[in-house]
Amino acid sequence: MNAQDGVEAEARGEQAASVQKPSKSRDSSNTELYIPEPTAGLSDFKHQFLFGLAREDAEHSSKVSETYLATLSPEDLDAIGEWKSFCEFFKLSWSEHGDRGGRGISDQVLSCSA
Length: 114
Prior knowledge:
The protein is mainly alpha-helical. It has 3 helices and no strands.
């Protein structure tokens, strides 16, 4: 077995050697709304954007988007376009006509542009 991130995997069917309790830090929380620090990774921004959508908190998702876009240089058009596409895709797919069963998100506040 190959070790990944300093954790050794058990062979298939074996019990885990130990169970670690998740850290109480903000970074490990899957349920807390927060605006990631500008130095955070893209996955943190995506997670918080989607979490804002899931909680129907358009203001939070907009702030996350603005913060992420502020970390990019204006010349990085690919990254800017990818982020805006990501935002629009989930806004549309989770809108009142999407997968959320009629629980739409207001477009009046939610924006992916800076």
